[in-house]
Amino acid sequence: MIKKLTLFFILTIILFQVGCSTVIIRPWTPPYKSRSVHEIRVLLGKAEGDLQIRGEGIISVYDANDLLIKKGIDIISLDASRLKAPIRFVSQNMSLGYKSIKVRGAIHLIPQNQGPTLVVNVLPLEEYLLAVVPSEVPYSWPMEALKAQAICARTYAVREILNKKNAFYDVEATTNSQVYGGLEKEHPLTTKAVQDTTGVMAVFEENPIQAFFHSNSGGKTETPENIWGGKKVPYLSVVASEFDSAGDNFYWKETISQELINSKFSNLKLGEIQSIQVLSRTASGRVDLIELSGTDGSSRIRGKDFRQTLGAPVRSLRFGIQKEGNGFLIKGMGSGHGVGLSQWGSFGMAKENYNYVEILRHYYPGTDLARITR
């Protein structure tokens, strides 16, 4: 009897230890007849005239039928406006440069019937992530935060690949998608985070989630319908983000001059704006409806439109505003749209020894992890 109890106790400890250290990651297969999600097309820019593609050593140029049409050493120059069909550049040393960015993979030039030629970097998804993660967060952050960011970035990218299968590119290299700084942004620590989570995504009902992320939620995240409209998303609910306080822009304030306020909202024809009042807030405390009153009348606008009009000075919608001197004082919390994972919140959780699974489940409740199988 004692031996049985001892064996049961040992097994219980083993199961507990395994349960604490093992994460169930199920396989995920892309939808039937979808494009391969192992390759991504990144828009680097648009060219209308002369451009240069740089490399180290031999650069080969191929046409749309994959026939070699030109070779050069180190630099190939051309006039993009004269291009009639797509061409592809490949470097002997597997890296190419366009303007200030150096990238892995190939560069495609895709002329348009109207408008400038698209400059598109085509490369393996996992290599793309090597440059995205350190472009989005510092490589010096805790490894669990880097892994969480890697999975967010991969999930976002795969969803874009699946949704844009008929477009000329999947993502942009800017904050319009997620920041992609190219080969020179890569760092061994973020590379490890990507490689340790190879192929892993966050999924909900077998689909890659809308893996939105932002800099700092100011203590509480927001739902997407309050920012962009549309339907509620089950896993993008309002959650507390207590560890944001360690990050940049947890608290901030800006003074906006009377002249700038009048200029920015001149289309409302309110004359000189004398007061700005918050009328309602969302459940997360973000400004929903705001009223501007001037010498010639008043107008109500959405908080998101107010922020978009003023731009960078209004770092998030968690703010209050009051008249002060010859202008308006805005005091706020957080930075960014506030939907999904807070990067500084993830940093704070990792500092408190939460692992990447716990971080992701906190910001995307109800989701699971899955690994791309083909």
From TrEMBL:
Domain of life: Bacteria
NCBIfam families: SpoIID_LytB
Organism annotation: Leptospira weilii str. UI 13098
Gene Ontology cellular-component terms listed: outer membrane-bounded periplasmic space
A Pfam entry, by short name: SpoIID
Matches recorded under PANTHER family: AMIDASE ENHANCER, N-ACETYLMURAMOYL-L-ALANINE AMIDASE-RELATED
Protein name: Stage II sporulation protein
Sporulation stage II protein D amidase enhancer LytB N-terminal domain segment(s): 116-202
GO biological process: sporulation resulting in formation of a cellular spore
InterPro entries: Bact_Sporulation_Assoc (IPR051922), SpoIID/LytB (IPR013486), SpoIID/LytB_N (IPR013693)
